[in-house]
Design goal:
The complex is a heterodimer of chains A (531) and B (547).
Chain A (H helix, E strand, L loop, with lengths): L20 H7 L3 H7 L1 E2 L13 E2 L1 H11 L6 H16 L1 H30 L5 H29 L7 H13 L2 H19 L2 E8 L5 E10 L7 H17 L4 E4 L3 H55 L5 E2 L1 E2 L5 E6 L2 H7 L6 E5 L4 E6 L5 H16 L3 E2 L3 E4 L4 E6 L9 H17 L4 E6 L7 H17 L3 E5 L3 H9 L5 E8 L5 E7 L8 H13 L1
Parallel strand pairs in A: 7-12, 10-15, 10-16, 13-14, 14-15
Antiparallel strand pairs in A: 1-2, 3-4, 6-11, 8-9, 8-12, 16-17
Chain B lengths: L19 H5 L2 H11 L6 H5 L5 H17 L2 H23 L3 H27 L6 H14 L2 H18 L2 E6 L3 E6 L8 H6 L30 H13 L1 H13 L7 H24 L8 E3 L4 E6 L2 H9 L7 E5 L5 E5 L6 H16 L8 E5 L3 E6 L11 H15 L4 E6 L7 H17 L3 E5 L12 E8 L9 E5 L8 H7 L4 H29 L15
Parallel strand pairs in B: 3-7, 6-10, 6-11, 8-9, 9-10
Antiparallel strand pairs in B: 1-2, 4-5, 4-7, 11-12
Helix pairs in contact in B: 2-12, 5-6, 5-12, 6-7, 6-8, 6-11, 8-11, 10-11
The chains are: A alpha/beta (531), B alpha/beta (547).
Chain lengths: 531, 547
């Protein structure tokens, strides 16, 4: 039984995530997105402030995992996008599916704990008690299968997404009427055998006259208690049977030793029947666990979407383009929007046949935010989620690398440069042509002159190999030099600064300038002082 | 009594204590590995004994050839198993008290025994035997199986076993009642399960349809029958009284049919079988073995001999074991081996010692080809750690161990001395070493003397100097050849640096290679990940680790 809600042809097993996902999560501020997705949104707390809604840590965890694994082809991406769309439309169904899987999983975990505990205690009675526990567990598993079937059958309309449609089909064809009925019949037999019903076995005597080649023949329901009068007829029946069957021998179990052996034998028969269910149980455990993990992603997606809509953040499903192209409109930085609970500045870009994007310009002009918005959108795009933009089109990359100089790093210090280049070297150990590299104020740990040389070499090497690089840099010497060579596949952007020195926080296409207008900032502060 | 280890008339006292050379040559490791694979027998006594004569060696070589080539070794393994089973059943039989059980058990014992006996006889009579040992065994088995009583016993046993296997009964169990009946129609419960779990009912072997159906009985076969079993027997006694009568009679009539001489044969067989399976395991991994040629003119020549215990360990990690070829020319008595540390000197000495040992046991040796004379014994002395118990210094310890070897004055032995007198001053060590060497040469012994004292090679007649020389080309693995040439006394530090690829050129070269690898890799990865689609295992980038 397969779930296949995340991939059309496989389950969520050993996925290969981005090379350094912790780095990406930190650089792109993704934690707040995971957390938001894990805050279960319901109509009731629509108006409550962010954070007071119910938290589901598992959803957060699954968002973190699934978002860090890229989809590598358009088909897989569309497959997932469709299910996200359907989950938004039919949230109550997805929620019910998720809750069912969640319950089934907690029972699986509980049983595992009970079983473990019972293994340690090895009393005489424990074997039959363990059997009973197993039987009960099997019963519960079948209960959840039945529930799931009910839930799927309640959905009378066709599913719009291939994923959910196939899931329903697959489940119903595997867990069809006859299978279900037979399963319940066997469960009934098992319960009877455990409760003292009749068990018939055949055996032969071996080389030491020991019982061997034991085979289970029949299980019959326990006969209801009869009155005394009937006991007599029973005896007659027995007598008749004895006459019919040669050598029959009947014994009432008054001898305790004999009773013990009979009980043991019955337990053996029961255990052997249970053993047939081991693969069944293991498979269902895996099935429910997959269902739990995979539906959690869609629950997270819907919650994230609802939160975005609350703050009027645009939501769009992205398009897959060739890797050389990148276009978007109304793109905002989602983590910032979620953090401030309002709509930040949006940006647009239309870059065809470009591999290198260089952003320079005014300090505090929104460059880093812009770069981060690109990175976040790329990550969400690649995992089949919607993007915080009006339109978004980009290629798919196997790997995403981020190299952000964080503020605390930027002190000039040769040890730092060493460390920074060490990080860069590690990226180069793993970078491939289907990677995208985000550089934010890299090589700031050395002088601008030196930094420019290093950046020039690295960027040229990547540009020659047509590896996509998105960089924000204060290394104006590098940027101007690079611009001067008129590279065909590069775009130069800068934070917009109006004539009056006012910053719009929009990023626009322009040639890199000599200064980053740090003076403006300085002046601004001075002015404040005078007032 | 027929023996597979000794030709008739020969007597060779069994040695129960581990000989001194065993640990030195790592033969204890070899034997314990064989023991692990053949737990039921005590192999130590078989391998500790050193054959007293050349005749024994030739006798065993023939037997080994026969076992390996003509008769399938499987027949011997089956025979051993049947004999073990016979003894086990017999033990059980002795403990049983209940009349019916005892007689049925005896039927089991006899059946096992005959399976072994007839099985081996059939295998041997179908084979072309060359060896004196196995031919005699075959003749003896032939006598046993054509015995009239044996033949009638076999027939009767088959008949009774058939009847026993047909005794099926049904038990109907509720929580208050139990019914045992026979002759009921067989119904199986498993239809529903088969519908639910068809895969579990796919039978792999023909005729083993019931395999998945059988339950493991919760009752072990016991000297005392269980209550249910007793009930079943009493039902049967009523139903088929003549069966139990016949079994009882069988036990009385054929009480003496089992002859213990087959047990001894079984023990001796383990000598060959253990080594054979050890050797086969190694052959699978590409190791070569040969049955050595025993020379009478003293010629001694080994081609590509290797350390068997080391090769055994190496083959699990797919490491290569270095082999060496060596030849003693006429009048050459001792090799004095010098060379760098970690250069394989000890391994070389050990491998030659092992070859001599296995050759003298009449077994194949770890080498491509081997010709060597018979030696009266093996003497080894490998430098020992200082003994904390005796409180004696290392040198004294060594001399004390060496004493008996020198005093005994055994002629024509093979002697291996490894790093003697390492703690003595070089001058002293040289004098002592010379005296030891002269002593053994005088006793007409041959051997190997591993040492770091190069002067030893110059002074004595019959001594040849071998030097372990590094094969310079290969940096990754340090391999050595042993060359006949005068010993030298250089340092080898630079050598070790080179081995670790730590020279300046090496480091530069490694960096270049990494860059070119990184240049080729991206295309492959791109192609691959686009083809396979989703982000599961296929898209993994694998980093090629540097050696």
């Amino acid at each position: 039984m397969k779930v296949r809600l995340l991939y059309p042809d496989g389950e969520w097993v050993h996925p290969v995530s981005y090379f350094d996902r912790e780095e990406i999560i930190r650089d792109l501020n993704l934690t707040i997105i995971f957390r938001t997705a894990g805050s279960i949104f319901s109509e009731g707390n629509r108006d409550k402030p962010h954070g007071s809604s119910e938290r589901d840590a598992f959803v957060t965890e699954m968002m973190r995992k699934v978002m860090m694994v890229p989809l590598l082809c358009e088909r897989d991406l569309l497959y997932r996008q469709e299910i996200v769309r359907e989950s938004m439309r039919n949230y109550s169904f997805m929620e019910a599916l998720y809750n069912l899987a969640k319950q089934a999983n907690s029972e699986i975990e509980r049983f595992a704990a009970v079983k473990k505990e019972k293994w340690y205690r090895n009393g005489d009675n424990d074997r039959s008690r363990l059997l009973l526990t197993e039987l009960e567990y099997l019963d519960r598993q079948v209960f959840y299968l039945d529930e799931l079937k009910k839930l799927l059958l309640e959905q009378t309309g066709e599913f719009a997404s291939e994923g959910l449609g196939e899931f329903k089909c697959r489940f119903l064809s595997e867990y069809h009427e006859e299978y279900q009925t037979t399963l319940h019949e066997v469960l009934h037999d098992l319960a009877e055998a455990a409760a003292g019903g009749m068990v018939e076995l055949s055996a032969r005597l071996g080389k030491r006259l020991e019982m061997t080649d034991l085979v289970l023949c029949r299980i019959k329901d326990k006969e209801p208690e009869r009155g005394i009068g009937k006991k007599v007829t029973e005896k007659f029946e027995m007598l008749a049977r004895n006459l019919l069957i040669s050598g029959a021998h009947v014994e009432n179990l008054e001898n305790l030793n004999l009773l013990q052996e009979v009980t043991e034998l019955r337990n053996t028969a029961l255990a052997s029947l249970m053993s047939f269910f081991i693969p069944f149980l293991e498979e269902k455990e895996e099935f429910f666990s997959q269902l739990y993990q995979q539906t959690a992603f869609y629950i997270g997606a819907v919650n994230l979407c609802r939160q975005m809509q609350r703050f009027h953040v645009p939501v769009c499903f992205s398009e897959v383009t060739p890797r050389k192209d990148l276009w978007f409109d109304g793109l905002v930085e989602l983590s910032l929007a979620l953090y401030n609970q309002n709509l930040p500045v949006s940006n647009r870009l239309d870059a065809h046949d470009k591999y290198l994007v260089v952003v320079t310009g005014a300090n505090q002009g929104g460059k880093s935010t812009f770069l981060r918005s690109l990175g976040i959108a790329q990550i969400m795009h690649q995992c089949g989620l919607f993007v915080a933009a009006e339109h978004f089109g980009a290629g798919l990359y196997r790997n995403v690398f981020t190299h952000f100089t964080r503020r605390e790093d930027s002190a000039m210090n040769s040890g730092r440069l060493d460390e920074e280049l060490g990080r860069m070297e590690r990226i180069f150990d793993h970078i491939t042509e289907d990677s995208v590299l985000y550089l934010n104020e890299s090589f700031a740990t050395t002088t601008e002159k030196e930094g420019s040389v290093i950046a020039g070499d690295i960027v040229k090497a990547l540009y020659d190999r047509k590896i996509r690089v998105m960089m924000v840099t204060h290394l104006l010497a590098f940027a101007r030099e690079c611009y001067a060579t008129h590279p065909e596949h590069a775009v130069f952007l800068a934070a917009e600064r109006l004539e009056n020195g006012h910053r719009t926080f929009h990023i626009v296409e322009t040639a890199p300038e000599q200064t980053s207008y740090g003076l403006d900032l300085y002046d601004e502060l001075e002015l404040d002082k005078k007032e | 009594m027929i023996s597979l280890l000794m030709p008739q008339q020969e007597v060779n006292d069994k040695c129960k204590v581990m000989p001194d050379y065993f640990a030195d040559l790592n033969l204890d490791q070899v034997v314990s590995e064989m023991q692990v694979r053949n737990k039921e027998y005590d192999l130590k006594n078989l391998f500790y004994t050193y054959p007293d004569s050349e005749r024994i060696v030739r006798f065993r070589q023939e037997v080994f050839r026969d076992i390996e080539s003509t008769v399938m070794p499987g027949a011997f393994w089956d025979f051993s198993k049947a004999m073990r089973e016979t003894r086990k059943q017999l033990e059980f039989w002795k403990k049983t008290g209940q009349e019916q059980q005892k007689s049925v058990c005896f039927l089991g014992v006899v059946s096992e025994y005959m399976e072994g006996l007839f099985g081996l006889f059939e295998a041997l009579s179908g084979a072309k035997l060359v060896s004196e040992g196995l031919t005699k065994v075959r003749d003896r088995l032939s006598e046993l199986v054509t015995d009239k009583k044996m033949m009638s016993c076999r027939k009767k046993a088959e008949q009774l076993n058939q009847q026993l296997s047909e005794l099926r009964f049904h038990m109907t169990l509720t929580d208050s009642q139990m019914t045992i009946a026979t002759g009921k129609k067989e119904v199986l419960y498993y239809d529903k399960l088969r519908f639910l779990f068809p895969k579990q009912f796919e039978t792999k072997k023909e005729g083993r349809l019931y395999e998945r159906y059988y339950l493991t009985s919760p009752f072990l076969a016991n000297e005392r029958l269980g209550y249910l079993e007793t009930e079943a027997v009493s039902v049967y006694k009523k139903l088929k009284p003549e069966f139990f009568k016949e079994v009882l009679e069988f036990a009385k009539t054929y009480e003496d049919v089992i002859s213990e001489e087959l047990y001894e044969l079984e023990q001796e067989l383990q000598f060959y079988l253990s080594y054979l399976s050890y050797q086969q395991e190694m052959k699978k991994h590409g190791c070569t073995f040969c049955i050595p040629e025993l020379t009478t003119d003293g010629a001694f020549q080994i081609t590509e001999g290797y350390d068997i215990a080391l090769a055994w360990k190496n083959m699990w990690v797919a490491a290569e074991t270095v082999s060496n070829s060596v030849e003693y020319c006429e009048a050459e008595k001792f090799f004095v081996v010098t060379g760098p540390n970690q250069g394989g000197k000890t391994t070389f000495a050990r491998s030659i010692g092992q070859i001599v040992y296995f050759a003298m046991q009449g077994l194949p040796v770890p080498a491509k080809a081997a010709r060597l004379p018979y030696f009266n014994g093996l003497l080894t002395h490998f430098s020992a750690e200082e003994s904390a118990e005796s409180g004696r210094g290392k040198l004294k310890e060594e001399l004390i161990r060496l004493g008996p070897m020198l005093k005994e004055k055994r002629k024509n032995c093979f002697v291996i001395l490894n790093e003697l007198f390492t703690t003595a001053a070089t001058y002293d060590a040289r004098i002592m070493g010379t005296r030891v060497l002269k002593h053994f040469i005088l006793q007409d012994c041959r051997g190997i003397y591993v040492t770091h004292i190069s002067e030893l090679t110059q002074e004595i007649d019959g001594v040849v100097s071998l030097v372990a020389v590094a094969d310079g080309e290969n940096h990754k693995r340090r391999t050595f050849r042993l060359e006949r040439r005068p010993a030298e006394g250089t340092g080898y530090a630079a050598d070790i640096v080179e081995r670790h690829n730590l020279t300046y050129e090496d480091i530069v070269e490694r960096l270049n290679r990494r860059l070119s690898e990184a240049g080729q890799k991206p295309e492959e990865t791109t192609e691959k990940s686009e083809k396979t689609g989703n982000g599961k295992a296929e898209g993994t980038e694998t980093e090629v680790a540097e050696g």
